[in-house]
Design brief:
single chain; mainly alpha; 1 helix; elongated
């Protein structure tokens, strides 16, 4: 009968923990940027669209 490879199982658990932690941090960062970034992106987009329409001769 084969002997269980505990080090492999531990390594797999550690990898899963790291991935879960990274996803959680990314989700928090996205939420943080979404609330603060939404106001900034709206302000940035409005001035950019108006000059582009006026500069382009039709």
């Amino acid at each position: 009968m084969a002997k269980p490879n505990y080090s492999f199982e531990k390594r797999q658990r550690d990898i899963q923990k790291q991935q879960k932690k990274a996803e959680k941090l990314a989700k928090k960062a996205a939420a943080k940027e979404g609330t603060a970034g939404a106001d900034v992106s709206v302000d940035d987009e409005a001035p950019q669209t108006a000059p582009n329409m006026g500069d382009t001769p039709s």
